[in-house]
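Running this now, will post back.
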Amino acid sequence: MNHVNLIGKMTSQPRYYELQNGRKIAQFTLSTKETFLDADGNTKNKNHWHRVAAWGRWVQILEELSHEGMELAIEGKLTSRFYQRGSEKKFIQEVEVNDLIIL
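Update: finished.
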């Protein structure tokens, strides 16, 4: 099963692209925080950054409402892809949005 749930903050404005077939995509980074106890029992925080891609109606919603620092709950799936930049092959993993809630 490929299922991802994230709650975090948008770290920058989304970047919007229109593909050759006319479909639009919004890409942004979501920061999530993990809290845990270290070996001495002290509370520690660790930030994680996630690449996120939104398609369809989510692009329009993000264009109208998004801003840096906005809190989001995202439900989606983890996707992987390759692309070529010059002679270099790049690998990307990102969360593809199925559902999005502005908190």
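The two ends are 26 Å apart (CA to CA). More later if anyone needs it.
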